Amino acid sequence: QVQLVESGGGLVQPGGSLRLSCAASGFSFSSAAMSWYRQAPGKEREQVAALTDTGRSANYANSVKGRFTISRDNAKNTAYLQMSSLKPEDTAVYYCNAGFFKPVFSSWGQGTQVTVSS
Predict the structure, then answer these.
(1) 3-state SS class at 31
(2) Can you spell out the DSSP letters for 42-110?
(3) Helix ranges (DSSP H) in the chain
(4) Could you tell me if 7 and 18 are in contact, meaning their C-beta atoms sit under 8 angstroms apart?
(5) What is the largest CA-CA distance in the chain?
(6) What's the pLDDT at 38?
């Protein structure tokens, strides 16, 4: 059974940083590209970052490029999203899923709330 457990969110001031974690199980993590998505209130879920299975190639949404970094530890079956220079418009629930261009799994984890506010 596939499980994706996101953590690390919280309340942070504009300009601050957070690191999100995604603990994965139930599939071959080291063979899967991983992505982070976010969904703000009243908006559709959007992909913000993707990383290949080897970690050698990443892709970012224009809105987060230069501020967010996706990484992974295949030994720990965990993906990360380092977020810096956070802005109020980054406020959303953040999710992870397998896949580089689109989500592989139809079921999602509970997500982790990120709120950027002074």
Answers:
(1) helix
(2) TS--EEEEEE-TTSS-EEE-TTTTTTEEEEEETTTTEEEEEE-S--GGG-EEEEEEE-SSS-S-SS---
(3) none
(4) no
(5) 40
(6) 98
Residue with tokens 């969110």: 9
Half-sphere exposure of 80 (CA within 13 A, CB side): 12
Structure tokens at 73: 């530890």
The full length of the chain comes to 118
Q: Is 24 exposed, middle or buried (0-12, 13-18, 19+ CB in 10 A)?
A: buried
Q: How many CA atoms does the CB half-sphere of 55 hold within 13 Å?
A: 14
pLDDT in tens, 55-99: 999 999 999 999 999 999 999 999 999 999 999 999 999 999 999
